[in-house]
Amino acid sequence: MNFNEAAVFKWVLIFAAAGGSVLVVVLLAGELVGALWGLVLALVGCAYGIRWIRDWWRRGKPPGN
């Protein structure tokens, strides 16, 4: 499996931004709100991953190819 370096870098930045936003919310609003925000981000990521996998199964190749 070949990986596009630009796509991998994009996802590294997305994960870093999500982690940073959780940290900022924890510091500004408290632990419970930060945990809930992290849960929301994780659920959105799972939904995106499920959509990506379904498209992969339908087309027989990863999306974007």
Structure description:
The structure is a single chain. The protein has 65 residues and is mostly helical. It has one domain. 83% of the residues lie in helices and 0% in strands. It is built from two helices and no strands. The chain has helices spanning 5-29, 31-59. It starts with a helix and ends in a 6-residue tail after the last helix.
How would you concisely characterize the structure shown here?
This protein has one domain. The protein is 83% helix and 0% strand. Helix 1 runs antiparallel to helix 2.
Structural class: mainly alpha
Q: Roughly what is the average pLDDT, rounded to an integer? A: 87
Report, as a whole number of angstroms, the end-to-end distance. Answer: 12 Å
Number of helices: 2
Residue stretches low in confidence (pLDDT < 50, at least 5 long) are: none
Task: Give the helix proportion (percent range).
Answer: over 70%
Tell me the β content: under 5%
Q: How many domains?
A: 1
N-to-C order of helices and strands: HH
Q: Give the strand tally.
A: 0
Dominant shape: elongated
Question: What's the gyration radius in Å?
Answer: 15 Å
Biggest β-sheet strands, sense, barrel:
none
